[in-house]
Specification:
Blueprint: E1 6-11, H1 18-30, E2 33-38, H2 50-61, E3 67-71, H3 76-83, E4 87-92, H4 95-111, E5 116-121, H5 131-139, H6 150-159
Parallel strand pairs: 1-2, 1-4, 2-3, 4-5
Helix pairs in contact: 2-6
Length: about 160
């Protein structure tokens, strides 16, 4: 018996943005199950700890049945094996993103050929949003309400 297709949407999500939320909503139209996997990036200083990021994403996606949020450590391909994923979901905003994601997809495919990478173009209204930019604006006291869901905005304001 074959299991339902499962897509993993990996990232640090520090913080989770409206662009991320849009990708989750669109992914749920393509896959019966999506797992947002939250990771620590070894070269990034994180604004929020893992537990806070998980809680924020859960709050932002509670309207999406079939979507789960989990912490993931180690290689993405190992997480795919462990969860039984059939696809890796990634968002693409720019040509630079496409170049980077192509390289990652080919590397992941070489390590785990049975898992496909699915690239979704960002919606035009979210294509300019990045977690890095949101972090910078928030840390300088700027208004990021147009870039993040309400639960994330509340966490950012509580962090002040």
């Amino acid at each position: 018996m074959k299991t339902a297709p499962l897509a993993i949407f990996p990232g640090t999500f520090d913080p989770f943005t409206l662009g991320h939320l849009d990708l989750c909503e669109r992914a749920m139209r393509l896959f019966p199950r999506v797992v947002v996997t939250v990771a620590k990036h070894h070269s990034k200083a994180h604004l929020f700890d893992p537990e806070t990021r998980l809680a924020m994403i859960e709050a932002c996606t509670q309207h999406l049945p079939g979507l789960e949020v989990q912490w993931m450590e180690g290689l993405l391909v190992e997480g795919c094996r462990k969860l039984g994923a059939t696809a890796i979901l990634r968002g693409v905003r720019t040509a630079a993103d496409l170049d980077y994601e192509r390289q990652m997809a080919l590397t992941n495919r070489a390590m785990l050929p049975e898992v496909e990478t699915v690239l979704l173009l960002s919606a035009p209204e979210h294509a300019h949003i990045s977690s890095t930019l949101v972090r910078q604006i928030a840390q300088m006291g700027g208004d990021v309400s147009a870039f993040v869901p309400p639960a994330v905005l509340a966490a950012l304001r509580a962090d002040d």
